[in-house]
From TrEMBL, chain A:
Name of the protein in question: Iron chelate uptake ABC transporter family permease subunit
Compartments, as annotated in UniProt: Cell membrane
Alphabetical UniProt keywords: Cell membrane, Membrane, Transmembrane, Transmembrane helix, Transport
Family under the similarity heading: Belongs to the ABC-3 integral membrane protein family.
GO cellular component annotations of the record: ATP-binding cassette (ABC) transporter complex
An example Gene Ontology biological process: cellular response to iron ion
Gene Ontology MF term list: DNA-binding transcription factor activity; protein dimerization activity; transition metal ion binding
Xref: SUPFAM superfamilies: ABC transporter involved in vitamin B12 uptake, BtuC (SSF81345), Iron-dependent repressor protein, dimerization domain (SSF47979)
Transmembrane segments: 15-38, 43-63, 69-89, 101-119, 139-164, 203-222, 229-250, 262-289
UniProtKB/TrEMBL annotation, chain B:
Name recorded for this polypeptide: Metal ABC transporter permease
Membrane topology recorded in Swiss-Prot or TrEMBL: Multi-pass membrane protein
Family, as annotated: Belongs to the ABC-3 integral membrane protein family.
Top-level taxonomic group: Bacteria
Highest classification ranks of the organism: Bacteria, Pseudomonadati, Bacteroidota, Cytophagia, Cytophagales
Cellular component, GO annotation: ATP-binding cassette (ABC) transporter complex
Subcellular location: Cell membrane
Classification via InterPro entries: ABC_BtuC-like, ABC_TroCD
Any GO BP annotation: transmembrane transport
Keywords, comma-separated and alphabetical: Cell membrane, Membrane, Transmembrane, Transmembrane helix, Transport
CDD domains: TM_ABC_iron-siderophores_like (cd06550)
Chain ranges passing through the membrane: 6-27, 34-52, 58-79, 91-111, 146-164, 176-200, 206-225, 232-252, 258-277
Amino acid sequence: MNTLWDFLSMSDANVRFVTIGSVLLAASSAVVGCFTVLRKRALVGDAVAHAVLPGVCLAFILTGEKNPLILLLGSFLTGWLSLIIIDLVTANSRIKEDTAIGLVLSVFFGIGILLLTSIQHSNNENQSGLDKFLFGSAAALVGQDLITFGAVAVLLLLSVLLLYKEFKLISFDLAYARTIGLPVRGLELLLTTLTVLAVVVGIQSVGVVLMSAMLITPAAAARFWTDRLGAMVVIAAAMSAFCGAAGAYVSFTAPAMPTGPWIVMLLSLLAIFSFILAPKKGLLARYLMQRRLRRQMTRENILKTLFHLGEAKGEYEHSYSKQQILERRRQPLLRMKNGLKVLRRQGLVQESHDGWALTSPGKKEAQRIVRLHRLWELYLTEYLQVASDHVHEDAESIEHVLTPELEKRLEELLDYPTSDPHHTTIPQQS
Amino acid sequence: MNIDAFWIILTGALVAICCSLLGCFLILRRMAMVGDAISHAVLPGIVLAFLFSGSREVWTMLIGAALLGVACTFLIEFFHKKARVQADASIGVTFTTLFALGIILISVYAGKVDLDQDCVLYGEIAYVPLDIWLTESGLNMGPRTVWIIGGVLVLLLLFITVFYKQLYLTSFDPAFATAIGLSTTLWYYLLMGAVSLTTVAAFESVGAILVVALMVGPPATAYLLTDDLKKMLVLSALAGTIASAAGFYLALWLNGSVAGAISVIIGLQFLLAFVFSPSHGLLAKRRQPIAVMKANAV
C-alpha cells in the first residue's frame, strides 16, 4: 500500500513525468483511434508507426543533430506520405487494401532500417539513442517531452471536440456527408493528419509495434459497451488513461518492467474482458440470450406437438405420453423433459398418470403458434409464389418471432383465411 | 564473390522463395495483415521455448513459435467470429497483445533470455556465415541457417505441389470447396501453420519486417503481372530471389542493413510493376481508353 501511496502522491518528479505523459498519450490516441476503427482503417495506424522511421533518419541526416522537433517533423512527413501511398495504390490498381498496408509498412520500415544502420556505421557520435525512437521508452520521458505530449494531446482533443459532428458524419455516412456539401476530402485528410500526429508522438513511449494497440484496442473495447459515438469516445479515453497510469505504476514498483508493453497488456486484458462480459454485446450475454430463445422455441414446439396430436381427433385436452410426443416430433429427450417442466410451472400443460395434456391457457397458446405457422405458409405461397411443399421449414422458424402486429397485417393481407396451403384449418383467435 | 557473400545471398534467396510462395495465397485471401500479425506474435513463443529448453535449440524454438502463430490466427478468428470484433481491429488487438506479452517475458527473464526486440524485428543476415554447422567428424557443412531454411523450403514445396488443388480451391472459391467436401477451416489453419513455421525459421536471420516485406511485396508485384496462380507463384519467387541478391549489394554499397536493403528493392520492384505492368499498370490503364477510342473510330 505504501508504494501505491508514494506513487499517487507523485512526489518524485520522474514519476510525475512518466505518469502524466502516459495518461495524456494514451487518452488522446484512444480518442483519435475511435474514428480510425469506426472507419475500418484500424491497421493503418500500424503502417504509419512503421513509416515513421525513415523520416526520423532523414531528419537526422539532413540536420546532423537530434532536435526532437525536427525529428518529429520528419517522422510526421513520412508517416503522412505512407498513408497517401496506401490510398494511391488501392485506388489505382487491383491491389487490395490489406496488401497495400503490408507493403507500405514493410518497405518504409526497410528504408528506415537501411538509413539507420547506415548512420550507425558512419561513426557520427551524435547518433546514439536514435533507435530509442523506435522501441520507445516511456521511462525516459523528461520535462521537455511532456510539454510536447501535452501540446499534441490538447491539439488532438480540441480538433476532435470542434469538429465532432463532421467527423461523426464521415465515419458513419460518407455519402450523406458529401450530399450536404461537407468538404469530405479535407475532413478525411484532417482526420488522417490527426492519426499520424498521435502515432508520431506516441511511438516514443510505446514503440513502433505496440503503437497500433494504443489506437485500436481501447476503441474496440469501448465499442462493446455502447452504440453512441460520444459515449464510446469517452469510455475509450477513460480506459486508456487508466491503463496509462496503471502501466506507469507497474514500472514504478518494478523498474525493470517496460511501461509501454504493460500499458498495452492492461488495455488488452480490459478489451478481452469487454469482449466476453460486456452487457448485451458481450460473448456471454449473447450466449445467454441465444439459450433463452432456444429454450422458448423448444417449449413452443412441445405445445404445438400436443396441439397437432389432439387436432386429429378434435379433442385437445387429451393426455399423451412422452413417447407419443417424441414420435410426433423428434427432439432430445432431456431438452423435452426440461421444457415440459417449465410449461407445467407456467400452467400451460398438466401431468396426469397417463401423460401430459394441454390446459386451456396452454391450448390457447398452442393455437396462436399453429396459427402463425399456417398464416406464414399461406403468405409464402400466395405472395412469394413458393411451392406449398417448400414453405414448412421457413414457417417453422418464423412462427416463434412473429409479433401480434405482424399477425394482424398478415391476416388483413390474406383476407382472413380459414385454411392453409395444405388444406388444414387455420385455428381462429378465440 | 567471396564465400560469405554467397551464403548470405543464398539464405536471402531461400527465405524469399519460402515467403513469397506463401504470400501469394495470403494476398489472394486478403490476409496480408494476418501474415504481419503472425510474424510479430511468434515472439512469446520463441521466448517460452527459450525458457523451457534453456538454449537456442532450433527445434523447440520452431515448435514454440509455430504453436503461437497458430494460436494467434485462432484468436483473431475467435474475436472476429464469436465475439464479433471488427476484423481489422481483431488482428490489431491480437498481435499487439502477444507482442507485448513477449517483451514483458523478456524483461522478466532478462538474465536468462538472450533476445531483444530489435533482433526480432530486423534480424541480422550478415551474421549467417558465422554460425557454421560442423559435423562430428569436423566436416564443414556450411551455415546452419541455410540448412534450416532449406529444410523448410523443401517442406513448403512439397506442401504446395501435393495440395495445390486444395489450396487453390479454398483460396478462390471457399463455397465450392466446402461443397465438394474440403474443410476450409483445416486448410486455413494448415496454411497459417506454414506461415508461422516460415516466419520462425526466417526471423533469426532476416527479422519479422523482412518476412512481411517478402510475404507481401513479391506476390503483390506478381499479382500485377499475371492472372494465373501458377505463373504468379513462379514470378513472385523469382522477384523475391532477385530482390535478395540485389539487396545484398545495395547494402554493401550503402554500408547498411541487408534486410532493410532487400525491402527497398522489393518496394522498387512493386513500383515498376505498378507503373509499367502491361496488363494492370498505370500506363496500361491510361492507354486503354485511347485504344478503345481508336477502335471505335475505325
